[in-house]
Amino acid sequence: MTQTSPTPVLYRVTFMHTPASPFTDPDALHVQEDGGLLVENGVILASGTFSALRAAHPGVDVTDLRGGLLLPGFIDTHVHYPQGRVIGGLGMPLLEWLDRNALPEEARLADPAYSRAVAQEFTRSLLQNGTTTALVFGSHFASAVDILFSEAERTGLRAVAGLVVSDRLLRPELHTTPERAYAESKALIEKWHGTGRQLYAVTPRFSLSASEGILDACAALLREFEGLRFTSHINENGAEIQTVRELFPGARDYLDTYERAGLVTRHSVLAHNLHPTGRELGAMAEHCCTAAHCPCSNSALGSGFFPLKRHLQAGVHVSLGTDVGGGTGFSMLKEGLQAYFMQQLQGEGGVPLTPAHLLYLATRAGAEALDLHHLTGDLTPGKVFDAVLVDPAPQTPLRAVFDAAENPARLLAATFATGTQGDLTRVWAGGEAVYCRDRSGAALHT
Ligand SMILES: Nc1nc2[nH]cnc2c(=O)[nH]1
Ligand SMILES: [Zn+2]
């Protein structure tokens, strides 16, 4: 990635962010109309009203973004790098979808030329959707993971990613051994963990495809290297859960297959968790791990409703993920809206989500899940300037709402309800403009 400019810039724009959680703090949403954000060397130095910041910093160049709405860069906590080209495999439950749709494509990433093209599409898709940090489910091939990290670093995406490891029940070309999984992961960790914006996540695909030996190899890596993250899948689909039960007769439940190997910690993010037991929720809360909620995928694969209320009551942290390609695309706006819909559809059992909840789930909740909230996830001074500008073009549905809005809260609600990638015109990662689209629709970066 190119160096950030050391020259300070004062951005003039209405901005919103959630430095706290609306699930616990009713005043979590901060709205600054006609705001100012002073950014230098990629870091936010000061924030407030534009007029106050202008008075305090009269000589600084101003970038005028009035008419738009600035939000923190989105944080997608569950998205599969090798599945961008198989979005849209509708009409199948999880295990059939994996066999027929996802795994044949994942096998193609053995070819570095193919994986480079996919990595470029993937990083571009995330950035142009305003996602500046992602917990990425990598590839089964070390060469493809290396290519992903180099593309992420080149484009400015903060990827928390790793080699996906499995040793049974997928396809032979996707299987490895505990020894090879350990050795290949270690080499990637030594090259990429903490390099630039990149971090490493130890990633067994799911217990269904992982022997105890390979889970132990994952645990050895977590013990050996500081600050690694861990991610996998859990409790997504009835047939999957039943198979895991049969494969691990000694485990108390699905979580226990990871827990007894020492894989469930503050740095663990488990995707889905649609069908948890009370014990699993209690243990997840105790270990301070996160459930990544992926509502578009849950709907597309017919996996079920996410029991958000039970997670919150148990004290389990929840973040949001697109789960491309089980999910339907890279938009965290669409994902937030689908989360809202699915809670609405649960009636009394659902949690009524406000636009502040959706913004929190799409930004700060992900930063907390990844233990990166000291760096990103909101726009308070001291944070890196990871941000996205919503600035709908004239004569579009969202522009009509923006122009008519009587208060800024309406802008946020409408952005989630009807905003698309086409309404996002600029994205910054670490203060650098990594995506920019002019009014004609031409992409100027990435
Ligand atoms: N949704 C989803 N669930 C999984 N469980 C194991 N692999 C996958 C995957 O690729 N997508
Ligand atoms: Zn997934």
From TrEMBL:
EC assignment: 3.5.4.3
Domain of life from the UniProt record: Bacteria
Pathway: Purine metabolism; guanine degradation; xanthine from guanine: step 1/1
Record-annotated Aminodeoxyfutalosine deaminase/Imidazolonepropionase-like composite domain positions: 35-59
PANTHER family according to UniProt: GUANINE DEAMINASE
Domain Amidohydrolase-related, chain residue ranges per copy: 70-434
Gene: guaD
Pfam family, one: Amidohydro_1
Cofactor: binding details: Binds 1 zinc ion per subunit.
Protein name, UniProt field: Guanine deaminase
Catalytic activity, as annotated: guanine + H2O + H(+) = xanthine + NH4(+)
Role, per record: Catalyzes the hydrolytic deamination of guanine, producing xanthine and ammonia.
Class in the EC hierarchy, top level: hydrolase
Cofactor: Zn(2+)
UniProt similarity note: Belongs to the metallo-dependent hydrolases superfamily. ATZ/TRZ family.
GO molecular function, one term: guanine deaminase activity
Keywords (A to Z) from UniProt: Hydrolase, Metal-binding, Zinc
